[in-house]
Design goal:
By secondary structure, the chain is α/β, with parallel strands linked by helices. It has ten helices and six strands. Bound molecules: uracil.
Length: 227
Amino acid sequence: MRSAIERRELLKGVYDEARDCVACPLHETRTTVVFGAGNADADLMFIGEAPGANEDRMGLPFVGQAGKLLDRLLGEIGMDRKDVFVANTLKCRPPDNRDPYPHELAACQDYLFRQVELIEPVVICTLGNFSTKLLRGDATGISRLHGQPEVREVGPRAVRLYPLYHPAAALYTPSTLEALRADFARIPDLVALGPPPQPTSIDPVPEPEEPAPEQPAELQAQQLGLF
Ligand code: URA
């Protein structure tokens, strides 16, 4: 069992790799890699789609209107951002906020799986269709799946996967907001169940081989919640 400090250090290693990533053409148009932010030791993770313009500029996930709604819904269940870890399927913004392409998702998914492997969340809430389809490995849409928890393996880790509507979809559709709020209300009970049984062989994550060059400490601290 890793300590919170070990988790954070290992996660920083993944971040150091991701911030120079050129694995897909999105690196040509991004301003900042949006690795994810929050508590590296969280039991609860949220996974959205991809950074938008605000996120790309600030280097942090869910900082626009959808993020404000996410904060409000978290508040309603007695939590806030520093209790959770928030990431996206893509770490770089697709131009004009278009949908992610399959080759971009494929190029980026290893970062997400390594985040999950290191954070070891009990519950992963997928927000919307892209993260739900990616993590479930099938094409069933969010309107059929939302609010139905299931045990799934994500990379080498078994988690309680809990598909939710994307907050952006709830911003202007009251019935979607109502469903999202009702689904959110069940999160604390799901987290309280604790982790599901794990697959038998989980290999330890190797230590990062060599330190990457330094980057502004403030951004690094925000992304990993080291306030
Ligand atoms: N929408 C997402 O899916 N992710 C973000 O970070 C912001 C908006």
